[in-house]
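Hi W.,

Here's what went into the run:
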Amino acid sequence: MNERSHMNTDIRDARIGLLGDMIRIRVLEERCAELYGQMKIRGFLHLYIGQEAVAAGIVPQLEPDDAVVATYREHGHALLRGVSAASIMAEMYGKATGCSGGRGGSMHLFCAERRFYGGNAIVGGHLPLAAGLGLADVLADRRGRVTACFFGEGAVAEGEFHEAMNLAALWNLPVLFCCENNTYAMGTSLRSSESQTDLALKAAGYEMPAWAVDGMDVEAVRDAAGRALATVRAGGGPVFLELRTYRFRAHSMFDPDLYRDAEEVERMKERDPIATFAARLVADGVVDDPAVEALWAAARDETEAAVAFAEAAPFEPVEDLTRHVLAEPEDHR
Amino acid sequence: MNERSHMNTDIRDARIGLLGDMIRIRVLEERCAELYGQMKIRGFLHLYIGQEAVAAGIVPQLEPDDAVVATYREHGHALLRGVSAASIMAEMYGKATGCSGGRGGSMHLFCAERRFYGGNAIVGGHLPLAAGLGLADVLADRRGRVTACFFGEGAVAEGEFHEAMNLAALWNLPVLFCCENNTYAMGTSLRSSESQTDLALKAAGYEMPAWAVDGMDVEAVRDAAGRALATVRAGGGPVFLELRTYRFRAHSMFDPDLYRDAEEVERMKERDPIATFAARLVADGVVDDPAVEALWAAARDETEAAVAFAEAAPFEPVEDLTRHVLAEPEDHR
Amino acid sequence: MSGELTDREITYREAMREALQEALTTDDRVFIMGEDVADYGGTYAVTKSLYTEFGRDRVRNTPLSESGFVGAGIGAALGGMRPIVEIMTVNFSLLALDQIVNTAATFRHMSGGQVSIPVVIRVTTGAGRQLAAQHSHSLEGWYAHVPGLKVVAPASVADARWMLAAALDDPDPVIIFEHTGLYNLRGDPGTGPVSLEGAAVRREGGDVTIVASAGMVPKALDAADELAEAGIDAEVIDLRSLRPLDRPAIRRSVERTGRAVVVDEGWRSVGLSAELAATITEDCFYCLDAPVARVAGVEVPIPYPKHLEDASIPQVADIVAAATNVMEGVTVGG
Amino acid sequence: MSGELTDREITYREAMREALQEALTTDDRVFIMGEDVADYGGTYAVTKSLYTEFGRDRVRNTPLSESGFVGAGIGAALGGMRPIVEIMTVNFSLLALDQIVNTAATFRHMSGGQVSIPVVIRVTTGAGRQLAAQHSHSLEGWYAHVPGLKVVAPASVADARWMLAAALDDPDPVIIFEHTGLYNLRGDPGTGPVSLEGAAVRREGGDVTIVASAGMVPKALDAADELAEAGIDAEVIDLRSLRPLDRPAIRRSVERTGRAVVVDEGWRSVGLSAELAATITEDCFYCLDAPVARVAGVEVPIPYPKHLEDASIPQVADIVAAATNVMEGVTVGG
Ligand SMILES: Cc1ncc(C[n+]2csc(CCOP(=O)(O)OP(=O)(O)O)c2C)c(N)n1
Ligand SMILES: Cc1ncc(C[n+]2csc(CCOP(=O)(O)OP(=O)(O)O)c2C)c(N)n1
Ligand SMILES: [Mg+2]
Ligand SMILES: [Mg+2]
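Here's what came out:
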């Protein structure tokens, strides 16, 4: 094989990888919804369905040393960061082998090994944290590292957004701010919560470079994120990405979804990031229908194995209730 | 007298009024500094010396029904709002006849009758309050009312600034945001605390009109505030004014003033808003030196009377300590 | 406490909604403000469809800006309105604490009594829904620490129905804590009115006094039933107001029973249960037959799995055990 | 507690500054961050000129963004650094409570023990400087309520000198409260080290135990001197750590004396004094000769004038009176 066909194969594989990643998230979460109905998963459950192109376009580009800080709508980010579907599912079951030992549940997935720092459920609360992770990298002179911080457009109204954006820009911190603008914060649209809805203009208030990207197009996300990450890694300071996306499901399993037209949702579903990208790949001759079906089948296998793992996993004994409040002696340095 | 000379007289008088107002603040505060040295005034004392053109250019333009919300550096604003020098001075002495009954001190001047709502000493904390006062006016359909909110440029970094600006713009509230940019927040310069130092750009992030004004020129302030107030009163929503000013004294009486060159302070003193405006009025033939001296003399009289009042005033009896925590029965509606 | 009985039975949620509706109807100055109170109907559906009746100005969705909109509520109160501000979950109220503690609670005092802040802030609180460590706490005790605030926790349908009006009638800031576990409680709302202050004896008994509030009241009543089967006759006091506390009512009861168990869902250390234990001991030291027993939240951020969540907050069995110990004079140190 | 004595006498402020300097010198991961910690030298001059030695990266001025920079400190701790974050005044810490309570205190737990947040947060606290109702409070008790935090209050020059190192050595978030009234206290810093936990008996006595912390310790010692003149031999315990509390040390003392006075500058209701009174009563009920007396802050936002400010916080005379009452078995209900 000559170099060019090598490259072609790499590109082909990468595109298939993007599709496969989105499918893995979708399948995992469709199953979560079922399991919620069966009361296997409890508490709040926020599905990412419709937004998969964002995580798929960004997370796999991160290096092992990078860090990720996300919201309660983070199953997809965790999965693509390399947290196993099994440990994610066990976490949602509240089992001891879950990625947070069962303590966190759906909203608080953690994996220190992958530098995946939550699963944060105070809207906006994790943005200062991301700035701090970036500050640590600067102070420890760990050049090239990036912290990717995911949050919804609703967080933009919070004071913590404002303070974190200013700190990151002022101190030139290596943080990629990924604002997933899915139009709604629970039932409140951006239009009814921000006087200025062009989020890039907000970033300008901190002199932070900002780009808006079609978040339903995984390749557009990947390309924008690639450029942004290159800037951040090179010491160019933080970048703000607005990913324009949409959630197809209700905010959480409690949400009666009264605040938007079914028609609007249907219209957006025509732009389903998975269906549209699969169609593009078929049109480009990269995959055929059976190949796409194979991706779904693989994802179903992964998810079913995860469910089996979670089902079989043990609960933490109740005697351990007060563990993990403070360090245990062996945690002391 | 014909109409034109009437108008000329009015304009003359108004200009002299501006000068007199600045002088009244200056004299009162120079005396406060002395009294602090004599330990008559205690706690934190923040002087406005150098910034008088801002309060003088804005506050007298407010109507009785308007509201004012200010910071701990608010003696001048209170005085020009019609809170008597005597009750201000008594407050700084902690006397029962002070404008806050002695409970507040220098940082917490209040006068409900003049709708002067503090004297607020949590930086940024009073901005949401101003939005709320504006909201009350909108909901009660009290058209034409304005709430003027004064704060330093240091407050811009606080999340509460961000949240209040967005609320005010989103809901089109009648609030005039007056940012007194004196370059320093205690010892921290704007440059070292904001990634974007052009504050008007911040306002753009909320789609709020914003103008920067030479805050050392009382007529420039008056003109800009006049236009801004007209907009706000007419229902045009909030306006953000950046008043570029400078404080000649240290941040508070505790501040050793180590963070700026004496030379910088001297250079700025050449732009003293009182001296330059007095010179302009003399040059314009509006006043002569004796007339200016008379303004100083009147201010001294006012201040000395205030000191005498404060000296003679009683302290609240210690038995009353727990009053004013909750409403007393007669306060119930 | 709740006026006459009626023949109605409604839920706590419905009672609260009726109270809001009434307030909006009878007083032009009243408006509701908070995240998703309009179209969404509130996270716990308490304000459901009120905006269709009163419009979006008076049932006002806010951006996610807890400090901003709570502060705006305080400002609007200062400006003559009677705002009812909703904070979805007590954990989020931390974002607004500056406004509540440094402004709402101090303005009257700092101004020498010139201004009032008649704001009402509704906050949902409590665990029990597997919402884990950022959505499940009970910080009522913190608020009860702060002079300048009044803090209430309706624990009955009647109080849910009528305390709001009393809160709106009060010239000072009132924080209303609504325990999420109570929203489906059913009962007779009564005809009202009720007073904002004053504890209520929910069950009379002569052997031991159980003092509880909010979500702990139904549990205390269940515990009393179990204790009765074991021959222990417990009196149950519902605090209703956490600040001020109704010390005389508690004292009257403990003077009779000589024994007390205090129950609070919040963490034990420096919590409401500590205040209750200290107060009772101060007031009744010489008539106590045993030290006051505290039943309080375990000192752990609330974990997600049901078995651990259940174990982290007081359950009926814990109250029963504490009361039994107190009857036997066993000291129950922490 | 403080290792060997030295022949030095320095102030509490100097001790704290030495501790910071040492930390910056010995551990590259340590940095200081807060409002005006650099050129200005800190509001209370504790960090004065440290930036000239260590540079502005490690002695880092922040914008006025309490939530932002405290959160950034927490994030930097997560990222392997050992940040020392300074909050000028406890009232401003309310702006950062979300970060401290919802993030710093929960991360270890929510992650099932995977992550540590070794951040140190220094907060000045207390009244006594006529700074009125937005600068003078004592909210240590609030922090002591929260599992996942450690809370200390150095009240001696030696603790000011050495507790910081112990705090930095701890893998969990530690809040250090520095009472502004102590900065000019003089004493021997000793050679250290000291432990982060554990109360210290500052004066031995057999008649009554006075438990105090932070700015109340010197007052308790003065009260003990006055009591001695009246023939009452008081023991004074300096809590040092407010969370966890050293219950065994308190119990040992009260078991001997049979009487206790607890002193806290914070407001009385649901404050630290409540926890102390409740704890002591639980641990020592059957050996108490009188109810525990609480001496606490009066429930009022702190007023500006000196006579009212003085009256609003515990003074030596209040402690003396409480101890005298306790000796006479007088119940001192609130
Ligand atoms: C500080 C805070 N306020 C309110 C909430 C309740 N809440 C949870 S998610 C959410 C909407 C957030 O919207 P957005 O940031 O756009 O993210 P999305 O859910 O759309 O992904 C709200 C209001 C919260 N968790 N934290
Ligand atoms: C929330 C808060 N943080 C810190 C402080 C301490 N502080 C008081 S004034 C001040 C500087 C404020 O600067 P700026 O807003 O520019 O107003 P100026 O003093 O220059 O008038 C600081 C940091 C405070 N009072 N409140
Ligand atoms: Mg959204
Ligand atoms: Mg300034």
